[in-house]
Amino acid sequence: MLRLNLKLKEKLQESLSAVLPITGIVLLLSILLVPMDLGTAVMFMVGALMLVIGMGFFQLGAEMSMTPLGKGIGIQMEQTRSIPLILLIGFLMGAIITIAEPDLQVLANQVPSVPNMTLILTVALGVGSFLALAILRILLQISLSTILSILYLALILLSFLVPEDFLAVAFDSGGVTTGPITVPFIMAMGVGLASLRGDRKATSDSFGLVALSSVGPVLAVMLLGSFFQPDSGAYSLPTVPDVLTTRDVVRVFVFELPHYLKEVLFSILPLAAMFGLFQWISRRFRSQQLKQVGVGFVYTLVGLVLFLAGVNVGFSPVGMLLGGGLANSQWKWLLLPIGMLIGYYIVKAEPAIQVLNHQIQDVTNGSISAKSMNYALSLGVAVSVGLSMLRVLTAIPIQWILIPGYCIALLLSRLVPTLFVGIAFDSGGVASGPMTTTFLLPLSMGVCEALGGNMMTDAFGVVALVALTPLISIQLMGVLYQHKLKKMERIAAMEAELVGGDDIIDLDSGEEIRVGEESTDGT
User: Fold this and answer.
1) CA-CA distance, 303 to 102, in Å (whole number)?
2) What are the helix (H) ranges across 100-208?
3) What is the pLDDT of residues 36-55, one digit of tens each?
4) Alpha helices in 329-440 (DSSP H)
5) Residues 463-472: pLDDT tens digits?
6) How many CB atoms lie within 10 A of CB 469?
7) Is the dihedral of CA 110, 116, 122, 127 positive or negative?
8) How many C-beta neighbours within 10 Å does residue 191 have?
9) Which of 183-192, 226-235, 355-364, 367-376 has the lowest mean pLDDT?
10) What DSSP assignment string belongs to 53-118?
11) What are the φ and ψ backbone dihedral angles of 45, each rounded to 5 degrees?
């Protein structure tokens, strides 16, 4: 119990350091540029507090439940040796988890003219199909770079045939499906699937499931766009609650909590049922492990309820207010640097990002640290939010950014170590989580509404851009890492007589190599 409390304290401290900067930026903007009434500011601060607590509980819960469950299912699937059965299980798990993903519910509520369940089922079908494809890629050891190049080329060609009003929504759908429920489970399943292979490329092949699962929804929604023509009506825009006292603030949050409890239960119960069925068939977990997973599910439930209530009730209306206020002022072009600053810090507050970064650090034995991942992701998302603000202000078509961006990302995938390709494309899906859909999207919509723009073509697309830029920034980090690794290998070769040293991951094969202690320190 003491160890659990220390772990929770550590996660809460991480959450506080992630949420504090974005909270400070918003409060500073409310003082200098877009004044907020006291009630709205208090709502925002309460939302920030719930974010910190919720994110801490969620991270610990995912580590205790989602990760072992996903890894256990991955190992068990590999042991069955029946490829058709493995693919069927992968398809069903992908579809079930996607239907339960809270981020998708948020996006579906924002899209007019298409019934929510139609959009959700379309996206679920896309994720299930492409998760099965991702599993097949691991089993057959197909190059991730090759398959991504083929799929994104198909996306680019199909984008010219899809109605313009539907294009941004299609790419946004790919980003929101890989959220806080999906990512820890799918990432761990990839590690489990690859762990039994024992070949040189097992480590690098454990990544890529999230990447391919993000492509499926885009293709599926593009095809859906051929049948549904969205119009400009009936948007669900967030509004600032009318609060006068602290009692009003508490009442608003208490009123909303049951809604998010129901939403998260809908997300967690299918996974809990899947775990029960898996345990009944495989008997994989012992009593102590079962207790740990059970506690982890409770922590995940509590964390997600608090997190979603905090961002939707406290953060989302403030995002809309800030966007509209800045767009209506003489300082509207400050949206570009302000957007980049918000983007740099907001990605740190995404709950699944920290899960991903620590999992990458563990899988690579610390060769790729969580700190360096955070830095690269922050830079990438900063650029994407700046581009999103530029799009809203100037009505630039999203293809002008997406097509060159994906071409650069695919070109880099041919140049960087294999491991970084999987990590980069996985990171793109994870970066566009609930903070993006509930703060950055309302921010973009607030600007668009103030300027009288087209919501479907101008405001939507921010999720897609947030999912794009990490593909480039992480792979550029891979280029630097490869240069550093080669330098270390040259020094090690010159000082071959030295014995011992540190383990470094060969990023093309996933194998550990040894270099001298002196050469490591000297790099």
Assistant:
1) 13
2) 102-110, 116-140, 144-159, 164-176, 182-195, 202-205
3) 888 888 888 998 899 889 88
4) 335-346, 351-363, 370-394, 399-413, 418-431, 434-435
5) 888 888 989 9
6) 26
7) positive
8) 22
9) 226-235
10) HHHHHHHHHIIIIIHHHHHHHHHHHHHH--HHHHHHHHHHHHHHHHHT-HHHHHHHHH--SS-HHH
11) -65, -40
Q: Do residues 327 and 451 lie in contact, with contact meaning Cβ atoms separated by under 8 Å?
A: yes
Tokens, residue 455? 């919501």
Q: Is 63 helix (H, G, I), strand (E, B) or coil?
A: helix
Determine the 3-state secondary structure of 376 from DSSP.
Answer: helix
- Pull the structure tokens for residue 233: 């009506």
Q: Which residue has the tokens 């208090």?
A: 42
- Distance (Å, whole) CA 253 – CA 314: 9
pTM of the model: 0.76
Question: Could you tell me the CA-to-CA distances from 408 to 168, 401, 419, 475, 497 in Å, in that order?
Answer: 19, 11, 18, 10, 42
**Joined tokens for residue 92:** 């069903």
Tokens for 117? 């369940």
Q: What distance in Å separates the CA atoms of residue 347 and residue 423, rounded to the nearest whole number? A: 16
Quick check: 491 and 522 in contact, CB under 8 A?
yes
* Cα distance between residue 50 and residue 186, in whole Å: 26
Residue 106 has pLDDT above 70, yes or no: no
Q: What is the largest CA-CA distance in the chain?
A: 74
Report H helices in 283-350. Answer: 287-309, 316-327, 335-346
Contact 141, 201 (CB under 8 A): yes
Q: In whole angstroms, what is the distance from residue 478 CA to residue 145 CA?
A: 14
* Distance in angstroms (rounded) separating the CA atoms of residues 122 and 372: 36
Q: Residue type for 478, please?
A: G
| Residue given tokens 């490591």 in the structure block | 520
